[in-house]
Amino acid sequence: MRLWLRWSWRDLRSRWVQVAAIAFIIALGSGIYSGLSSTSEWRQVSYDASFARLHMYDLHADLAEGAFLDATALVDAARSIPHADAIEAVEPRLVTSTQVDASTNGETILVPGRIVGVDVTDGGPHVNGVSAAKGRPLEASDAGTDVGLLDRHFADYYDLPDTGRIEVSGGTTLDYVGQGLSPEYFLITGERNSLLAEANYAVVFVPLETAQRIAGRPGAANDLVVTLAPGADRSAVRAELEAVFAARFPDVGVELNGPRGDFAYRYLYDDIEGDQRFYNIFAVLILAGAAFAAFNLTGRIVEAQRREIGIGMALGVPARRLAVRPLLVALEVALLGVVFGVGVGLVVAALMGSVLEGFFPLPVWRFPFQLGVFARGAALGLFLPFLATLYPVWRAVRVTPVTAIRTGFLATQSSGLAPALGRIPIPGRTTAQLPFRNVLRAPRRTLMTVLGIAAAITVLVGLVGIIDSFLATIDEADAESSTSSPDRVNVSLDSFYPTDSDEVRAIADAPVTGAAEATLELPSTMRANGTEVETLLEVRDLDSPLWAPTISDRTEATGPGVVITETAADDLAVEPGDRITLRHPRREGATSYRFVDSRVTVIGLNPFPIRNVAFMGLADAGLTNLEGLTNLVVVDPAPGTSVDEVKQALFGQPGVASVQPISAFVDTIRDALEDALAILVVVEGAVLLLALLIAFNSASINADERAREHATMFAFGLRLRTVLRMATTEGAVIGVLGTGVGLGAGWLLLSWLVRSLIPETLPDIGIVTFLAPSTVLTAVGLGVIAVALAPLLTSRKLRRMDIPSTLRVME
Amino acid sequence: MGLIELSGVTRRYEIGGGTVTALQDVNLTVGAGEFAVVLGPSGSGKTTLLNMIGALDTASEGEITIDGERLSGASRADLFRFRRQKVSFVFQTFNLFPGLTAVENVQFGVDATGKRDGHRIAAEVLARVGLGDRLHHFPSQLSGGEQQRVAIARALATDNPILLADEPTGELDFTTGIQILELLHEQAHAGITVLIVTHNREISRVADRVIELSSGRIVTDGPPTGGQVPIAELHW
């Protein structure tokens, strides 16, 4: 056995450049798998630890929009349930929309946001705590004072100092004493539950009393969070809470949810599984590329050993023993790759760790070494390439000794497709024909090289295609929201106001306002065919000259109707004319609301790619009992007035909660995507490297294999540049084939990811499948140009070739 | 003045830290249309001599002049041009391009010189060597003798004045070997200088001239011992 080991080790050394390249390809595959998969484990343990440290609620009671209750009454109600002993802690909160002015000397920062009033008595809040990432936490002595904590995501985005001063709606100035993190805001989603909205959404944590004073609602709360004692029956407590709220506050709609009712919580955990599936797909594809490369190399090594195998056969060595040597080579290459892979994995993991920390700031991040994950990565890296070598080895040892031992012209027999492909007429001089002939004369080898390159291109197209698809989706959203009045701003009000109220008139009559339209924006839920879609229902003039949604397949309805997005229609499996159930707020008293179910007809489809937007005509506003009221005024700036001027003029107006340009939503997604690219860039870099390695390896193997042919060409006086031109042409042909296959397979992968995988993690977005021309060009550049130019790397070797010796090499 | 002239040519190689002298002070003149055989045992320097004449290798010392062109000190580009215009090769292991058919392999020889109409010329030359019916066969579909004929045709198609053949019958059986020798002999009659390197003394009997090497030196140079015989009389 030692002999075989030593022998196989010499085989490795004689082709060390190719061996190193393949080992590195395997390392990339197994390392990327290990590195990326580690992040899944890290995220799981870090999320668990972070939510636990800040006591994420077990139950959350959310009052209907615009409804407020006495905080003490709310807590008393919760404490009065039969299983009150199951409640570990219960705290009221006052959560209100606001506009935050965090402008610095050099930058105007005016964004909508939220004031979260929390109970700071006795070191609170004890439920959904606020961790001070910078500065100091809120203290009991802060109650009622104008101090708060600024959400860290927002502060980080604008690089704000650890402490400072901001202004919120109503002209209140707050000193923020630190930057905080709280479980519901581990991921900033804004009012529309759009991801990573920190650039356009500021959360300010203040003592409950301070929030009450700013909102002008002393003693009020609109939110209650509860943690339960270990072992408590959450369903039972929830049912009892629902019952007691319904009994004590019959005019107020109260929604009760567990942690999974929180978008950020749900998204963070669900995203782990979705991301892991992405990682698995990309790692397996990279490993597939490695397997093809290993197959090629082993095939070449076995070919080179053919006579030696034949001699072994002639000496009576069993085939299985003869197979040991090439298999050992394969195993050693794979082992080398796996060892490199641990290094690559650690580097990828370290990069991903820092990306994650920046991407999802949490109070606790843990990065333990994932032995199990690395063991799985190593097993994959060992198994796949090794498996790929079995076929050429089996092929080599099953021939008869006399066939294996043949030399010279007798050894150059070809079979299979090769003779047929060789008949394909190719015009031009032989120097022009040769590259194509070489591609055709070894179809299996060509196929393996093509598949290796295709695997890299597939990964690249799949990966970058996702980014392209996101960008195209955003562009679609942008196009739909700016069909007219692209500079308009949404002025959110802090409650419902009559359309002829002073507050609304002040907005409409402001000098910065060119045109204004009063609308309603209501959180709602659509249900049909067993599917439920949360939506923001805009009640507005569907034919407004200011802006109106594009409506296709418009139909008339006898009763109330809604326009839903095409994405929502797909998910609900409905089409125009179908009826759906709309759960929406309905005004019950002067200031009380509750959620009710109404049957409405889908009267048309809107192309906006986000599913949780729906429109209803003003004529149907009676359904909500909110006719003549508004909580959102759409303003088109007066001629010559900028959006910033509108924001500054309307900020601080009575009743105004926020002023947000219509482009903010799209910009938020764009910003989020740019951040998300940081993660993808790590993998993209590895994929580019992989494609280059495969290209180089293929060129290097080809150069070795064609050495005698090149020597013959040199003997006939062909110049080096002519020989290189032939090699690059051959590389280009293989590159074109590989790129073509890769682009096709990449498109299929992308389509599958967009249709099947992304909807599982981002159900609200109807991503369009799109591949940007720049991505196609990158793929072509990499797959064709890099593969074609790779032979130039062998020019030194060719230049230094010992022509006489090479010519006399016996095959 | 001969077509091939070597004056005081020495070739030394650095191998494993030592110096090996493959050729030592060789002086040689070969005229146009000569059919010469370079004879010698393994390691005598005969292939090195052939490589020097073919500009595949350069001399450590001495002067090599081919058809009036000095190879000593010539640039790499000049050596490549020289090979395209002056010499052509036939190898022991044929060195055909497996991806090209017989006619395409021969056409390669024409293309290498930069001449046009390569396919027609190739077909004609193949017909001359008796392979007019095997034009579109790939090397793997030809016998050893046929492959060597294609290799000779490829060399002839260049229309270069010197044909260098390194053990051209080494891979072939006797009958096929004889046919190949006849083919090469005919080329000398047609005015091409043919230089064959072999260790087979029998082959040297048909040559106009036998240059025998031993340990890198020319030990004899002249007509075959016992006189030139017709190819038909050869046996080995």
What is the element layout, followed by pairings?
The complex is a heterodimer of chains A (811) and B (236).
Chain A: H1 2-14, H2 16-53, E1 59-63, E2 69-70, H3 71-79, E3 87-101, E4 110-118, E5 131-135, E6 147-151, H4 152-157, E7 164-168, E8 172-181, E9 202-207, H5 208-215, E10 220-221, E11 223-228, H6 234-248, E12 254-257, H7 263-304, H8 306-314, H9 319-322, H10 324-359, H11 371-397, H12 401-405, H13 418-422, H14 430-441, H15 443-481, E13 489-498, H16 502-508, E14 513-528, E15 531-540, E16 561-565, H17 566-572, E17 579-587, E18 593-606, E19 613-617, E20 629-637, H18 643-650, E21 656-661, H19 663-705, H20 707-715, H21 720-761, H22 773-789, H23 795-799, H24 803-807
Parallel strand pairs in A: 4-9, 6-8, 15-19, 16-18
Antiparallel strand pairs in A: 1-11, 1-12, 2-10, 3-4, 3-7, 3-11, 5-8, 6-9, 7-8, 13-20, 13-21, 14-15, 14-17, 14-20, 16-19, 17-18
Helix pairs in contact in A: 1-10, 2-7, 2-10, 2-11, 2-19, 7-10, 7-11, 7-15, 7-19, 7-21, 10-11, 10-19, 14-21, 15-19, 15-21, 15-22, 19-20, 19-22, 21-22
Chain B: E1 4-15, E2 18-30, E3 35-39, H1 46-53, E4 61-66, E5 69-70, H2 76-85, E6 87-90, H3 102-113, H4 118-128, H5 144-157, E7 162-166, H6 174-189, E8 193-198, H7 201-204, E9 209-214, E10 217-222
Parallel strand pairs in B: 3-8, 3-9, 6-7, 7-8
Antiparallel strand pairs in B: 1-2, 1-4, 4-5, 9-10
Tell me what you see in this structure.
By secondary structure, chain A is α+β, with helices and mostly antiparallel strands. In chain A, 51% of the residues lie in helices and 19% in strands. Chain A is elongated and about 100 Å long. Chain B is globular, with a radius of gyration of 17 Å. Chain B has 236 residues and is α/β, with parallel strands linked by helices. Chains A and B meet through helix 14, helix 20 and helix 24 of A and helix 1, helix 2 and helix 3 of B.
